[in-house]
Amino acid sequence: MRIPHLNLSIGDIILLLFIMGFASIAITPGVVGAPMNETTHYPSVREPTECTNQSVLEHSPTYLPDPPSGTPPTHHVIVTYSHIENTSRYRITFDIPANRTSGIQFELPEQAALVAKTGFESKQGVWNWNKSTRTPSAVIDTNGTSSASLRVRGPLVQFPHGEEWLLAPSVNLNGKNISVRPATAGAIGEQYLYLGPVSVHRNTVGCQEQIYIEPAAAPENSATPPAVLDLLNESARRLDVGAADATVRIFASPTIPEGEHPGWASKNEFVAPAQFHVDHVGRGEIWIHEYVHTRQDFQATRGLQWITEGSAEYLGRRLQMELGLISPREYDVLMSQYQHVPNTSSLNRAPPTSNRSYHWGAAVLSQVDRQLTGQNASVGDLLKTLNEDKQVGRRDAEQWIGRHQNSTSNTTEPYDFHEATFSSSYPQPAYMHSTRYPQVLRAFIFHFGIGTLRGLAGVLSLLFLIKYYQSKTTAKVQE
Length: 479
Ligand SMILES: [Zn+2]
Description:
Layout: E1 2-3, E2 8-9, H1 10-27, E3 51-52, E4 62-63, E5 77-84, E6 89-95, E7 105-107, E8 113-118, E9 120-123, E10 126-129, E11 137-141, E12 150-151, E13 156-157, E14 166-169, E15 172-174, E16 178-182, E17 186-188, E18 192-195, E19 198-205, E20 208-215, H2 225-238, E21 244-245, E22 247-253, E23 264-266, E24 269-273, H3 285-294, E25 299-300, H4 307-322, H5 328-336, H6 355-371, H7 379-389, E26 391-392, H8 394-404, H9 417-422, H10 439-448, H11 450-478
Zinc ion is lined by residues 289, 293, 309, 312.
């Protein structure tokens, strides 16, 4: 069958419809529903003005600048860290001045193993200097003994290393007047350390100093330190949630860590892959996600365990969009892709680091933010309240949302947070674009990338025009 006037076959028509569909979805914004006017939940309000010095150590060691240039006071114990080449091990060597007689101890990070020691004795998991030498030392394997992985803050993580570099958890040093430094190059944090050549970049936002540790071993096409620091600076201004640390250390990993998660955080420090660009859809959010963890200072219990990861995940995507690093449509794609997480139970019972906590949690919080539209409140304010309360459960969040949500909203009925957390089916996220935008296309765009789809639509259009031109000329010849 052919349409006589245009000389088009059924195949041509299907192709044309396909191109038109693509053009409307992948190219023309707004055709499938205008973006919601919701992009001002997290304006750049103010930089943090009250920071807490979150050192977990009884007496915080002094961290020498890199490369070690300053001379520490002579009465200090100097602890030198060296990587044992091509392994996941490092050695700490203590240099104890003659007048020092006691009070030097350390604890291993979770699941790390002590593989050698001189001058230390263990007492209930704490290694104490036994005074047999003034240069005691210990070798720590950060891959554990029986398992090749470590559990930090719940999720399974694996610290990476190369021939000449190591990213690892730090030992907890305890004692007065202790200075730490890398033997050759690197940066030693309270939670993590990097041994190997680095450049250290600093940025101050209000009372907070953000320190980006850029490894020389990172591949050439990695995210640039200014791009990451700008992002974190902007995130600090938009997250008016309290619990700001005076120092945040960002350890960029030269390789993408294997295991369940490519990044992780503990207290005021975090690790993320250097290769993850800040504007990458589905990857770039990691910098904000881990930064949000540094701004969480509460213990979630009683049905709210999911909120730690859920809020980091949601705010990661949301701020990435509000900062213009991803488009609202890309944000929608990210929010929609996890609806197939097996719905074995509700969010209320989700383990803190399950997929449900991350993705269903993010979806629920997007709905909460929508309900708070026009109420001068946001999920950020909820986080601030949780930070103030310290010990929080589902009912605390439920009551806060009940007090703040928009009861006169133009949506059909007020959002039921209780229902959403107890439901065992996927909570529909609040999309920036209309929900008429089909899920299958969101998934399609996510997997192939908007750029690729636009390219494909372009090529198809061109093919169609050529075909159309050819059919026209053939028709003329026939006439
Ligand atoms: Zn997380």
